[in-house]
Amino acid sequence: MLLDLNNEKMQEQTNHIIEIKHVSKYFGDKVALDDINLYIKKGEFVTILGPSGCGKTTLLRLLAGFQTASEGVIYIDGKEITQTPPHKRPVNTVFQKYALFPHLNVYDNIAFGLKLKQTPKDVITRKVKQALRMVSMSDYEYRDVNSLSGGQQQRVAIARAIVNEPAVLLLDEPLAALDLKMRKDMQMELKEMHRTLGITFVYVTHDQEEALTLSDTIVVMSEGKIQQIGTPTAIYNEPVNSFVADFIGESNILNGTMVCDHRVKFANVEVECVDEGFGENAPVDVVLRPEDLYIFPLSDSAQFAGKVTSCIFKGVHYEMLVESDGYEFLVQNYHHFEVGSDVGLLIKPDDIHIMKKERICNTFEGKIVDENHVEFLGCGIECLPEQTQGMEPGTEVEVNVPFGSVILYDDEEDGALTGSVRFILYKGNHYHLTVASDWDEDVYVDTDDIWDKSDHVGIGFPPDSIRISRKKMN
Ligand code: ATP
Does the C-beta of 30 come closer than 6 Å to ligand 1? Predict the structure, then answer.
């Protein structure tokens, strides 16, 4: 098991082979890793999972020694190795591209590291044969590596890494270049290899299914930060926020209101749940897994009455979209319901996952410019004079703008400032977007319009949506 910083004290007392403490990595202004704390136990299979650009490869490269941390310290096997060069660390790395020496045969590729260390010849032979057996390539010793398939080359790359008997094997998307069938086979082999070798595996992938299949522990990352650490079941069943819920498997994520303990309202219906302690009428995010929604011909027992708008066969189950009172639900079931049929939906209280909303509107620090303007996100923006009443120019203020009031423009020049769409969450009846503004602060937007990730947009704030209050002094 691997724990997060909240349990730092407890973690330090246990048997960790890797300790990453307050590690950050900057590339110029770009924060690739932001205060990472991670403790990995000996023999664990840990997967670092996240979308492209979240910093997972950078984290692995810091462990391998190909890059050094800008801040923080890393210990491997009890030794501080933050500045130690790669070849002096007790780790080996397997890359996505096999990186084999094309002029050497299979045996010599695997033996290369041992020869460098001037290991006796008979020991090399024994170890290479053993490594080849581990990756089921015993008959390929003298083959030219160029004549091997992608899967076979990756097996040789793994053999070359494990032959050195590292304490930790680092794997950077090692199966990404293989076709689906080969990838599934190799996943099983890797899991078996991990069990037999008993060494610690740190595995990087953006493929959530691969992470769920392989790992003892998954570390979900986004934007250089760890979002959640847990077992595959904990991550799947109890995501800590809407990013994790959306990233791990398919989900329905809806805005809701916790009416009181054990009662939540979403999609215009109030239902029973098991959660408590949110207070009365607290805004929440509600996560429903598509396989947890029961679907049946419409009857009185339905919590949600709806109509099927799409039905696709997915090999084992059907995936259906059901429209209910303006909200769309994704439902998976072994039975299929015709498009257009009236259906009922039902969800058990303990299958409703409720998460506290991280924010309920945009909040920016600002400064009064004059009666009709307030400066925030680096721009002077028009506001209504009643909002600035009694405030001198220069007064420091807090500016609030509801998500639904922010306007996005196709033409960047139409906005007060510009940004790019970083994250899109479908909330059943609208999209919730995270837009990275060029001022380097995120703006959150609720919209019915369809945008794509990485779209460059103009961002506008209608004057009547801007609420201004004096900045609270701490
Ligand atoms: P991918 O799956 O696409 O490889 P990743 O999650 O592994 O993504 P990283 O490669 O760790 O992400 O990159 C994290 C961030 O740091 C990205 O925004 C990337 O552009 C940036 N970055 C990484 N290496 C460098 C570098 N050498 N110079 C500048 N920026 C970098």
Answer: yes
